[in-house]
Each structure stands twice: as structure tokens, then as C-alpha cells.
Write a structure and sequence with these properties.
single chain; about 375 residues; alpha+beta; Nuclear Transport Factor 2, Chain: A; two-stranded antiparallel sheet; 6 strands; about 70% helix; transmembrane helix; DUF3887
């Protein structure tokens, strides 16, 4: 009799375990719509507020971002749930070709049915095919890239370090972060655009125009700052302003990204390839910044400072346009073009600037 009772209790609990969750249908619709791209599958399962926010164009932009980044969606599985007031928060593991994403789906009961009220990406983990690197470790690679660029100039003969100008370069990075970004965001705030997904939802032409705007604001703003502070300086001193700017970016930006990832909880790891690419990018960008300040200082002394400023700002703008387009679309073509143009421009600048900086006699006194 006891054995029968135990068996009945076991079957009872098993029945509860296998029972469908009340929001399973909405979760399945979320998966099927993301897999197929058919918004009509998802729309009936959205609550009224979600229908207003997660429109078909927004859905398509969101899905396109996922597919371009992580490949086709393959499967999904429930992991856990929690409750917050009237909402049920369910976590699902979505398997894409290139990564596993933990999606947080928020449901609430509406007229006896559970509707999707929110959708967030909680975590991104690489698939077994590519090893993941914890974010704190991955963030060190861009820093190492900047430091390696510093050592490159040191080994090329620029062994007298101008610390004041190096610190000035760091300071200019902070100015850039606090001033450049708000300038870039002004037109988007006016248009009510709050995220990259909103930009993508407006179509390919708007993405291109957005990339150009972001790229050229960055180009003219940063080269303008360096021009103001490097003119009337010796070439070697100007080099350290640019070097400080590049190393400052390589250190400050990853630290800000780390704080953001810890605050939001995403992503806990990065792929090895993207980590190495981040280090290489910071190395090249630091070389670029150092080289441009040499050119700006030399051009100002020789009467063509404004022409040099305009040319370098345009070159910088083109590089950052491709970079912005990649950030928005994850287009591999844009990524490749970013590095091709960055490498080509950096090599041309250094080939032109370094001999002039080496030939110049060191000044004894430096005044900002």
C-alpha cells in the first residue's frame, strides 16, 4: 500500500512538472515568429502596450539584428521563472547558429490569457564552436592594444615621454565622451529615436545617413580638438597628445563598457575572435591618433593647417562611418572596409609624419 501511495505521489508531481505553463503558447509564438520572421504569429500574443511599442517594423529590425549577429535561430528551451507583482518573468535559452541567448520574456494575464508584455536579451554566450572569454578579461585586450601602440613609438625612438601632453590627451577623451555623444544624439532625440533598433526600423537609407552623421561628427570633433591643442607644438610633443588620446580611448571606453555590462548583466562573455579584433582595433586607432596630431602640428607650422584638418577629418569620418554602419547592421562588409581604410590611412599618415617628427630637434620647454 505504501508503495502505491509513493507511486501516486510521484506521478502527481510528475504531472505538475510536465504540465504546460500558462504562457507556453505565447513563448512558442515568440520563438516561431523570430525563427520565421512572421510578425503575424506573435501579434495576437502581445498585450496592448507591447503592440504599441513592438510594432512590425520594430520586430523586423530586432530580428534582423539577431540574425545578422548570431545566425539562424535553431531551438529554444525554458530555464526558469520568477514573479514581480502581476507579471511573470520567464527565462528562455534561445539557440542560434553562433551563440546562445538568454531571453527574458515578461507575461501578464489579460482576460484569462497570458500576453507578452516585455522582451529583453539577458545574456549572450558563444556556441561550443568558439570559446568564450569573460568580459573583464576581454576588456583588457583593447587596453593592451593602446599600450602596445605606446610601446611601438617608444621603440621607434620617441623615448622621452611628455607626460603633461599624454595626460592632456586623456583629458580630451573625456571631453569627447561628454560633448561629442550629445551632439550626435540631437537629431535622433528630435525624431524620437531611442535605440539602434529604431534606426534600423527606418530602413537601409536611414541607416546609411545615420552612419554618415555619426562618423563625420566624430571625425570633425576629434580632429578639431587635436588641431586646437597640437598647433604651435613641436611634432614630438604633438605626437604625445595624440598618443594620450589613443591610449585614453583604449582604457576609458573598455572600462565604461565593463561597468555597463556589469550593470545590465550582458554579455557575460565575448568570443575570442572579437576580443582579439578589439585589441587590434585599439592598436591601430592609437597609431592613427598619434600620427594625425603630428600631421596637424606640422601642417599648422607650414601654413596649411586648415587643409590638413579638413583632409584628416574627412578621412576620420569615412573610417567611423563604416564603423557606425557595422555597429548598426553587423555587416561583415562594413567591418572589413573599416579595417582596410583604417590600416591604409594610418600607414600613409605614419609614413608621412614619422620622418618629420624624428628629424625635428627636441624643444627644451613645453607650455600648454
Amino acid at each position: 500500500m505504501k508503495k502505491v501511495a509513493v507511486m501516486l505521489i510521484f506521478l502527481l508531481f510528475l504531472g505538475f512538472a510536465l504540465a504546460e505553463r500558462p504562457y507556453d503558447e505565447a513563448a512558442k509564438a515568440t520563438f516561431e515568429s523570430l525563427k520565421s520572421g512572421d510578425y503575424a504569429l506573435l501579434e495576437p500574443h502581445l498585450d496592448s502596450e507591447m503592440k504599441k511599442a513592438f510594432t512590425e517594423s520594430y520586430f523586423k529590425a530586432f530580428r534582423d539584428q539577431l540574425i545578422s549577429k548570431y545566425g539562424e535561430l535553431k531551438s529554444y528551451e525554458f530555464t526558469k521563472e520568477g514573479k514581480q507583482g502581476e507579471f511573470i518573468i520567464a527565462y528562455y535559452r534561445f539557440e542560434f547558429e553562433k551563440a546562445y541567448l538568454t531571453l527574458r520574456l515578461v507575461f501578464r494575464e489579460v482576460n484569462g490569457e497570458y500576453k507578452l508584455s516585455g522582451l529583453w536579451i539577458d545574456a549572450v554566450n558563444p556556441t561550443e564552436g568558439e570559446k568564450g572569454i569573460p568580459t573583464p578579461v576581454a576588456m583588457a585586450f583593447p587596453m593592451l592594444g593602446g599600450i602596445l601602440a605606446f610601446l611601438t613609438f617608444y621603440l621607434m625612438g620617441f623615448k622621452k615621454i611628455h607626460w603633461a601632453e599624454l595626460i592632456l590627451g586623456f583629458f580630451l577623451v573625456l571631453v569627447t565622451l561628454f560633448v561629442q555623444s550629445p551632439i550626435q544624439q540631437v537629431p535622433f532625440l528630435i525624431m524620437g529615436i531611442k535605440s539602434n533598433t529604431d534606426v534600423i526600423a527606418k530602413g537601409a537609407m536611414f541607416i546609411v545617413l545615420t552612419s554618415i552623421w555619426l562618423g563625420f561628427v566624430a571625425g570633425f570633433f576629434q580632429e578639431g580638438l587635436k588641431y586646437v591643442f597640437s598647433r604651435n607644438k613641436s611634432l614630438r610633443i604633438a605626437l604625445f597628445i595624440g598618443l594620450g588620446f589613443g591610449v585614453g580611448e583604449a582604457i576609458i571606453i573598455p572600462l565604461l563598457q565593463l561597468v555597463q555590462s556589469m550593470t545590465l548583466g550582458i554579455p557575460p562573455s565575448q568570443t575570442l575572435s572579437m576580443t582579439l579584433l578589439g585589441g587590434a582595433e585599439r592598436y591601430l586607432v592609437t597609431l592613427f591618433h598619434a600620427g594625425t596630431t603630428i600631421v596637424l602640428a606640422y601642417a599648422y607650422k607650414n601654413g596649411f593647417g586648415r587643409k590638413a584638418f579638413l583632409s584628416l577629418s574627412i578621412a576620420h569620418g569615412i573610417i567611423d562611418t563604416f564603423a557606425a554602419h557595422y555597429q548598426l547592421t553587423q555587416s561583415q562588409t562594413s567591418l572589413i572596409l573599416t579595417y582596410i581604410v583604417l590600416i591604409a590611412v594610418t600607414l600613409i599618415i605614419l609614413r608621412y609624419a614619422l620622418p618629420k617628427a624624428k628629424e625635428e630637434k627636441e624643444e627644451e620647454k613645453v607650455v600648454w
